[in-house]
Design a protein that fits this description.
422 residues; alpha/beta; Purple Acid Phosphatase, chain A, domain 2; 2 domains; six-stranded mixed beta sheet; 14 strands; Metallophosphoesterase
Length: 422
């Protein structure tokens, strides 16, 4: 199917969803006064027309017509209402299946046909009435979901949380006992829309006074230029033992349509330069010693390596060479799937790995011991600390956001890990 046919088909589907939801809304408001019904009708179709217009506009305007943030908000303004309407459709389909089954039964056994409603909306409902409960439930659920997504933008996007974790390492040198590590991941500077809030998040990290800091990839969405306005904020992140970083899948510009391979290569070079400007020690398939009081541990950093269809730029074998004798080895690797795919099977002396990438899908539940997100069906390790055979992985939930400019339930994270001798 070519792009034009797909556009037409999707437009028809979206309008079909709008019309289907309208039938439920019309049924629920049928007993209100005529002026009230008219206002609700105007509000619904006015908002729906605006949403459809935005969708059509985005199909015909060039990709760079709006800046990245504006484009993100327009897309969110289209997607959020339709996700909410799809939830409404789910309940409506249940009601329509119920009505269909009733109709089939009443067709073959007329004696069980339902009594006609007092104020039928249409001829079908004279014999098979709609369920007031299901229609109302559908509309309430859809409205609540839309409100939740909007709240996630207004409040959740920059509601930074510090998560403190102690990790016991059996071979940890005495000088490193109690060492405090700060981790950031998935900044995605091209998505930010509140510079003051971002600055506040960095200040929260600095108040923790970490001994060392790690950044585990995705500084930008696609282009190095996105971080330009935030250099003066993130360059303030300092630690006595340095700030060490690696690259994530978005840092390579693989998801952007470049004019040439040379242009893409230059973008990556500019991104590496940005790490230098920030004062971060970018690790590209290499290792280095971290020394405290004549004792040392090894830090290994690789380029992005993800299981499945994600880019595999990293070379752990190369990065590991020369690190064999460190009593404790710490790995920086953006994608948590790397831990299970390569680290656990081949490198049982890598004690602790840091990753990000999943964002916790920016949507889920973490309350009263309950931890759930749709992303867990794609990643076994997706947020928090995981331990297997004395090897540990910590997956940061991300500092920024991508696509949906907000967070619901899975809030942006600043990780503070304390190393403890076992």
């Amino acid at each position: 199917m070519n792009r034009t046919l797909f556009f037409i088909a999707l437009t028809v589907v979206l309008f079909g969803i709008d019309w289907y939801v309208w039938q439920a809304l019309r049924f629920v408001i049928r007993n209100l006064s005529q002026p009230t019904q008219r206002w609700i009708t105007l509000a619904y179709w006015g908002f729906t027309s605006l949403t459809l217009f935005a969708y059509v506009m985005m199909q015909f305007l060039p990709a760079d017509f709006f800046n990245r943030v504006t484009r993100t908000f327009i897309i969110a303004g289209i997607a959020i209402p339709y996700f909410s309407k799809l939830l409404i459709v789910f309940f409506l389909v249940i009601d329509d299946i119920r009505r269909l089954l009733q109709w089939i039964v009443s067709y073959f056994i007329p004696s069980v046909a339902p009594v006609a409603p007092v104020n039928p909306v249409n001829s079908v409902e004279r014999s098979i009435p709609r369920s007031q409960f299901l229609e109302t439930t559908a509309l309430v659920a859809g409205t609540a979901l839309m409100g939740t997504f909007v709240f996630g933008i207004l409040s959740g996007a920059h509601d930074y949380r510090i998560r403190r974790v102690k990790v016991v390492l059996k071979n940890l040198p005495k000088a490193f006992h109690g060492m405090k590590i700060a981790q950031l991941s998935d900044i995605h500077s091209g998505s930010f829309f509140n510079k003051t809030a971002v600055k506040g998040g960095v200040e929260m990290l600095l108040r923790e006074k970490p001994d060392i800091a790690f950044f585990t990839g995705d500084l930008v969405n696609d282009r190095a230029v996105e971080v330009k306005d935030y250099i003066n904020i993130f360059e303030k992140i300092k630690a006595p033992l340095g700030v060490h970083s690696t690259l994530g899948n978005h840092d390579y510009g693989d998801y952007y349509q470049w004019g040439s391979q040379q242009e893409k290569n230059q973008n990556l070079a500019n991104l590496k330069k940005a790490h230098e400007l920030l004062g971060w020690n970018l690790m590209l398939d290499e290792n280095r010693a971290i020394r405290v009081d004549n004792e040392e541990i090894g830090l290994i950093g690789i380029q992005n390596w993800g299981a499945g269809n994600f880019a595999k730029y990293g070379n752990l074998e190369k990065a590991y060479q020369g690190a064999e004798d460190y009593p404790v080895k710490i790995l920086l690797s953006h994608d948590p799937s790397h831990w299970r795919a390569q680290v656990l099977p081949k490198y049982n002396d890598i004690d602790l790995a840091f990753a990000g990438h999943t964002h916790g899908m920016q949507f889920g539940v973490e309350v009263a011991g309950i931890k759930w997100s749709p992303v867990q069906y794609r990643y076994k390790e997706w947020a928090g600390l995981y331990t297997e055979n004395n090897q540990h992985l910590y997956v940061n939930r991300g500092f920024g956001y991508l696509g949906y400019p907000g967070r619901v339930g899975i809030l942006p994270e600043i990780t503070i890990i304390e190393l403890v001798r076992g």
